[in-house]
């Protein structure tokens, strides 16, 4: 495998860049880029897209936004990271926990208005971006070391349970509801008798395909395949008339 642009840059320059070249990495490696690297970069780009598309759809839904917003943000974020990012291995972007926190916070402020919901979420993204720039200027990344692993573990576990509970009503084909974790459990338990069997069977089949793909086809874009096939089936068959609803009409976070 050929070495990446940043590796060749370090060899050619003999050290790290300074000044505006440090802020705009393409100015460092573009002159040393080799045409035969393009095939490997193209494969990497397709692989990243296969991962990013279904993830971006899910994160947007968790934030209470139409799924296509996640695609738009991934496109813009990927472009800017290509221009200003300096690492070939670093994965940067939203997480399920952040998306859920945004959705829960915006829910009270939007008051059910989907347009206001999207506007507040967009403003939140701009404010967080500005804070990240400020933190970079002040070299505040070392503050992360003061957060204990126990706190992070508890946060991840709580976020995982909360996220799972927000998605279970969709799996069972029921409305769900509730303002907090335990209330949502009771609401979901009361709606179990109204389970849409077609939606449940479709969801369990998709989960089974994902698990089997992870086991027998590691490294392949199985999640993207499931998303594409699901969209096609719901578009060209009569499944859409069996209780499947779009998540783009109303926010999914109560």
TrEMBL record:
Keyword Plastid on entry: no
Domain SLC26A/SulP transporter: 38-237
Pfam family, one: Sulfate_transp
InterPro entries: SLC26A/SulP_dom, SLC26A/SulP_fam
Protein name according to UniProt: Sulfate transporter
UniProt keyword Disulfide bond, yes or no: no
Organism of this sequence: Paraburkholderia hospita
Protein's cellular compartments: Membrane
Transmembrane feature ranges: 42-62, 68-84, 117-138, 150-168, 188-212, 224-244
Primary residence: membrane
Protein's membrane topology: Multi-pass membrane protein
Keyword list, A-Z: Membrane, Transmembrane, Transmembrane helix
